[in-house]
Structures are given as structure tokens and as C-alpha cells.
Amino acid sequence: MKPGQTQRRPWIVGVSGASGTPYAAAALRALLAAGESVDLVVSRASRLTLLDETGLPFRDAHWQDDLREWLARGADGKPGTFDVRIEDVRHWSAGDLAAGPSSGSYPSKGMLIVPASTACVAGVALGLSKDLLQRAASVTLKEGRKLVVAVRETPLNGQTLRHLVSLDDAGATVLPASPAFYAGATHIQDLVDFVAGRVLDAAGVEHGLYRRWEGELGGGSRAT
Questions:
Q1: What is the value of pTM for the model shown?
Q2: Could you tell me if 30 and 201 are in contact, meaning their C-beta atoms sit under 8 angstroms apart?
Q3: Is 8 marked as binding a ligand?
Q4: Per-residue model confidence as pLDDT tens digits over 8-21
Q5: Per UniProt, where does FMN bind (predicted)?
Q6: pLDDT tens-digit profile of 92-102?
């Protein structure tokens, strides 16, 4: 690092194969809007989910073009909804176990898994590290950094619940992808942004994704 240069400390964002790729897109947009750097890991399973939910591919060789198109799309599938700059994003292939985030000496602020599938939850809870996403999560825990796991599944069986308790015991924040309605949602994007906003709340990153509760009944029914 050159004298006077600030060390880059990104948030690692892992996208697993659970349904809910709009949650990941909203969280990524908000992190970048807040001036945060992002290291992105998109699992192999999540690429199939992304293709199914949006019709968009995510390819390692074309990740910048694919990411721009994905983040520009609204939760309703409309392209060109958002204008996003991705200069502060670094992409790591899910199969690259020699990547920066695989080591505890690699500087990061923490990790957000959005959305987190039950398979991903199990892998992290058991310390399997079968791909870079799971390995980066294990590293985040062992280094005592913030790990937010936005699990997206229903119903939850006993095995998954035990895995989630294990993650909580290990210091992770377990955050079910459960939209709320008190914020006055009028569009699917509002519901998506609420979940993404709660993820950023857990990470301590400022944002303006949803209207916060102010202790006044009926506030969500009024236009903002």
C-alpha cells in the first residue's frame, strides 16, 4: 500500500441459491450508495436462481456487464429502473478457494449472505467450506467480524432451526427475509427494500430504504 493510501475494507456479499435475488440486488445497491466497497461471491446455485427469477445470466467472464444489468432491474423485473455504478465491486468466483476472502488476513468489515439457502446455512453452521461463499463465512466468524445471514425458506424444519441456533451461538445475526407492512409498502420493491434495509441495519450501514417506525399508529397507511 502506498503512503497516504487508505486500505480497502469491503463488505463481502454472498448470494446463495435461495429464492430472493431481488433482496441481494437491493442490498448491493444500498451498500454502493452508502459509499461502501463490496466483494461479491455468487454461488453456482444462485446463478440458476437468478436466471429463473430474472432471465439474466451471471458469468465469471462477463460479470461486470451481467452485474450492471442485474442491479439496474427493479424487483418487478423492469429493466433500467436503477442507475448503479459498480467501480467499488470486486468479484470472486465461487470456486476460487485461493481468493482473498478465504483468508482471515484479508481485510473486510464483515459479510452479508443475501439470500441464504438452507443448504448454505447448514454448510456455514457445520464449517464445511465447500465453496468460497461458505469459506468466507467461516473466516468471518473465526475472525469475530459481523456476519448477517438472511435466511429465505419456509417452513423451517428442526434441522435448519438447529443450524440457525448454531450460527447465532457463533456470533452471526440470523435475519429471516420477512417483509413488514408498517412502512407503508405500495409496491413489491418496497417490500424487497425493507428486507435489504434490515440487513444493512444489522451491519450498521446507513441507508434510506424504508420508513422507520416512529411510534405512531396508522403511519404506514399514509402516503410518504
A1: 0.95
A2: no
A3: no
A4: 999 999 999 999 99
A5: 17-19, 43, 152
A6: 999 999 999 99
Parse the chain into domains and list their residue ranges.
Answer: 11-207
C-alpha cell at 176: 429471516
182 has binding-site annotation: yes
23 labelled as ligand-binding?
no
Cell numbers standing for residue 15:
448470494
The verdict on whether residue 43 carries a ligand-binding annotation is: yes
Residue 157 CB neighbours (<10 A): 10
C-alpha cell at 16: 446463495
Go through 95-124 and write b for each residue having 16 or more CB atoms within 10 A of its CB, e for each that does not: ebeebbbbeeebebbbbbbbbbbbbbbbbb
Which CATH topology does 11-207 take? Rossmann fold (3.40.50)
Residue the block writes with cell 409498502: 185
3-state secondary structure (DSSP) of residue 115: strand
Helices (H), the chain: 21-33, 44-54, 63-72, 118-126, 132-142, 158-169, 188-203
